Amino acid sequence: MKKQRKKVLLTALGLLLVVSVFAQGNGASGINEATQMVTSYFDPATKLIYAIGAVVGLIGGVKVYNKFSSGDPDTSKTAASWFGACIFLIVAATILRSFFL
Questions:
Q1: What pTM does this model have?
Q2: Among residues 50, 77, 45, 47, which one has the least CA distance to residue 64?
Q3: Cα angle 40-44-49, degrees, rounded to a multiple of 5
């Protein structure tokens, strides 16, 4: 029983070694495929970030309008922070796209 188990294990080990020898390659095709896959995500991701920036801008505009209507003296600070968030999203998406494409 022990000899049979040993033969099976040695055979399995031999097959694994043979398979790993045939699976060797330079990896260039895999790297190229991964690069193409990652770069294909940039256009939809950029459009999604622009849409998020538009929603953030609308929400910020409503918040600033509410503060302005209520007479809050902190309106300019709130407007600057919401406007800065929108500008950051748009600039970050554009810069990332220009770096990687």
A1: 0.61
A2: 77
A3: 135
Cα separation, 95 vs 51, in Å, equals 16
The answer to whether 57 touches 86, Cβ cutoff 8 Å, is yes
Q: Tokens 């040695």 — which residue?
A: 10
Query: What are the tens digits of pLDDT across the range 30-60?
Result: 788 888 888 888 888 888 988 988 898 899 9
> How distant is the alpha carbon of residue 19 from its chain centre?
34
Domain ranges of the chain: 41-101
Cα(72)–Cα(66) distance, integer angstroms: 9
End-to-end CA distance of the chain: 61
The confidence band for 21, taking pLDDT boundaries of 50, 70 and 90, is low
Mean pLDDT of 59-76: 90
Position 47: which residue type? Answer: K
Contact present, 63 and 20 (Cβ < 8 Å): no
